[in-house]
Design brief:
By secondary structure, the protein is of the alpha/beta class. The chain folds into four domains: 12-72; 86-188 and 375-405, no CATH class; 198-359, Rossmann fold, CATH 3.40.50.300; 408-492, no CATH class. Helix content is 43%, strand content 13%. α2 (32-44) runs antiparallel to α3 (51-72) and α10 (215-222) packs across α11. The longest helix has 22 residues, at 51-72. The N and C termini lie far apart (96 Å).
Length: 493
């Protein structure tokens, strides 16, 4: 056996160790067991054992084992440089994106669009759904044009993937027929015992039909009450009614306000309600779900019956008053209703004319039967997602399945707390953390409103990156939100 000694290295193991420490070779690609077997085989052919050589080998082998062990063990989080993601943050984000956790909280939009996606990043989460319990809160909000694909996917998960689906809502849509059509072996049952009895027990309000009001007339009626909530269908109308109210104790809520201002306003509203102070609130439908407030009186512009009943949940919510003195006033606003609400309003009008009590299960069932089954299957699968030809074309299906049409643009509102983040945004230094922080200072406006705000010099255009930045501070007021009047004026021309 020959021993090779060079100026830089003494033997192959010394060379290997050098390459590993200099990151020229990946330690995980080295099998120490094979090196040991080769060494022992070579030693077996030697007449006399050299103890110096043996000890050097043991030292080298031990060093390699130590390096490899360190590489295989989990590393502690490393401090990140400015704008960079730590390894621990990356691991958590990856787990979040893949739904790799015992409990996952997500939106219905994310859930269903993941099921119909054609991207590997979204498909990685699918196997975590198997054998799980999936709870759909506010199930009545599933968009009607996608109702059949959504119900079909729920049925598929239950029948073939061991999933238990729980649909939670106070205004359960009439989905039984649809589930039987799309998932015939699926077993449906009520979790709560005696649903009709529970409806009677939780009947805390009475309903009253009102007439047609202008914004000024509506503001006058609201001013007669000390504490009242009014929900309208359009953001512009909400601002008009709000401006017509007396200054003391008036509040406005809409998606044109940034989230931080909405939260602060809601905290003030709750405090005034508890203290018995004057509190008159005009809002869009954003308060109908997930907002815990308790008003003695609620006014709701005519909409779908499910929206009216959701609004009723903000009246006498804590059950401190009788149903007779807790009134939900259903009224109509002057002018044409939003086109997207016409069918819901018509179905609600028919049901309110037929049933004396609209907050009952028979009335709700009648409403959804009118709304859903009169339309037919084509309306319940408007994009033909379940069409056999499209269903086999994953990319086309994914492109068609969008529960929320991307017809809005994000506008970031600068303030004292986000000046540095806005500067990074302008510089193009995007990151997930940056966008998440700035989400607290953003509003979404329709495409036509956005274009007109840019034209009027109110918003700095970055639409190629998916956002705009407010550059005229006077256009945003914390109590009212972003004014779109400039855009409306331009459209009128």
């Amino acid at each position: 056996m020959y021993y090779v000694s060079l100026k830089q290295f003494e033997g192959p193991l010394d060379l290997l160790l050098h390459l590993i420490t200099r990151a020229k070779v990946d330690i995980k690609d080295i099998f120490v067991s094979e090196i040991t077997e080769q060494y022992l085989a070579s030693m077996g052919s030697v007449d006399e054992l050299d103890m110096d050589t043996a000890s050097e080998f043991l030292t080298m082998a031990a060093t390699l084992l130590e390096i490899k062990s360190r590489a295989l063990l989990p590393r502690p989080p490393e401090p990140a440089e400015d704008g960079e993601e730590t390894p621990e943050a990356y691991r958590k984000r990856l787990a979040c994106e893949n739904w790799d956790a015992p409990v996952v909280v997500t939106t219905a939009v994310q859930f269903f669009e993941s099921l119909y996606a054609a991207k590997t990043s979204k498909c990685r989460k699918l196997h975590h759904i198997a054998n799980s319990v999936v709870i759909f809160d506010e199930a009545q909000t599933i968009p009607v044009p996608f109702l059949m694909p959504c119900v079909s996917s729920i049925g598929e998960l239950v029948q073939h993937y061991g999933v238990t689906a729980v649909l939670c809502t106070a205004t359960q849509p009439a989905l039984g027929k649809l589930f039987k059509q799309l998932a015939p072996t699926l077993v449906q049952r009520e979790i709560a015992p005696d649903p009709d009895g529970l409806f009677d027990d939780f009947r805390r309000v009475s309903f009253r039909r009102e007439g047609v009001f202008t914004p000024e007339e509506l503001a006058g009626r609201l001013a007669e009450a000390e504490q009242v909530l009014c929900i309208v269908n359009m953001r512009k109308r909400a601002q008009q009614v709000y401006e017509g109210l007396p200054g003391e104790g008036r509040f406005h809520l809409s998606t044109l306000m940034i989230p931080t201002d909405r939260e602060e306003t809601l905290n003030v509203i709750r405090a005034r309600l508890r203290n018995g102070q004057v509190c008159r609130v005009v809002s869009t439908s954003l308060v109908e779900a997930g907002v815990d407030v308790d008003f003695p009186s609620v006014w709701r512009e005519l909409a779908g019956l499910d929206s009216i009943l959701q609004a009723a949940g903000r009246c006498n919510r804590e059950g401190k008053r009788s149903a007779a003195e807790s009134v939900v006033h259903v009224f109509e606003a002057e002018g044409a209703p939003p086109h997207a609400m016409i069918q819901q309003r018509e179905a609600a009008t028919e049901v309110m004319g037929e049933f004396e009590e609209i907050n009952t299960r028979p009335a709700i069932r009648a409403y959804f039967n009118r709304l859903l089954w009169v339309k037919g299957d084509d309306a319940l699968d408007a994009k033909r997602i379940l069409n056999s030809e499209r269903a086999c074309t994953f990319r086309k299906t994914a492109e068609a399945f969008h529960l929320i049409d991307a017809d809005t643009c994000t506008v970031y509102v600068p303030n004292e707390g986000n000046a540095e983040d806005i500067a990074q945004l302008r510089a193009g230094l995007y990151s997930r953390a940056l966008i998440r922080r700035l989400g607290r200072s953003s509003v979404n406006v329709y495409q036509n409103e956005y274009k007109n705000l840019v034209f009027a010099g109110i918003v700095e255009d970055h639409q190629e990156d998916g956002f705009g930045i407010l550059i005229q501070p006077d256009a945003y007021k914390p109590k009212c939100g972003l004014s779109t009047e400039a855009g409306d004026g331009f459209l009128a021309k």
